[in-house]
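Deliverable D4.2, example record:
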Amino acid sequence: MPLNFLEVWNNMKRRALILGSLALSASLLLSACGGSAASSQAASTSSEAVASSAAASSEASGESVQLTVFAAASLTETLNEIAEQYKTVAPNVELVFNFDSSGTLKTQIEEGADCDLFLSAAQKQMNALQDENLINTDTRVDLLENKVVLAVPEGNPADIQSFEDIGTDQCKLIALGNEDVPVGSYSVEILTNLGILDELESGNKITYGSNVKEVTTQVKEAAADCGIVYATDAFSAGLETVDQATAEECRQVIYPAALTASTEHADEAQAFLDYLATDDAAAIFESVGFAMVK
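Output generated by the structure prediction step:
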């Protein structure tokens, strides 16, 4: 009897150990699966979640926050569309845009204009504000890339097919942005590299616009035989493009963005800037020809 009891007892202990090991393994497996699922869920944060933290404080108090965004004129159509979309993400955040040439916007910020977020069409203007400590450097990002193109009026009456044609008798008048406007600076670079800028200036073949939208309008109304604009503006205006600047003709066109040093709504401004890098915003930017900077 004692022997049988010991055998039974030992068998019971072995079974208990086996069951305990199985239970422990199952527990560890479930824990690992749960952790993996949680990690995957965290990694797939939606566009709405990007802005939720910024909207939370204003929603909790029921207060509306007004964000003033200074943006290059070439961002007009896309940012207005994104703003409509953003209303469902952060309903208590009101976006107020000031669209103009990046040079004009830079000057306004330097003169103390209220601005929470600045989106420039070139590094030059953002660099100047950074040197003057007027932006929050830690928030600065390169957001978008654009291309510089040669656009012509409907039907292309002058039959201009390339940048080289600008220097021929086919082109009687070309529309450009002022040199202190990013698109004007890029235009000067292209025409200088082609060796035809001096000839155009001496022949009074250039008409200027204070921003890219004015240049686009001159081309659309056939007030000029052609114009140098951004690919996105040509697309939005329905213009025909006949040439695109190469890397040898023009430096890369990058749009930097940053919060201003004077913003009183840093959380909300940062949330909107973060949202501009989401897939939802990227779809709108890319639909007109922008490329997201990775």
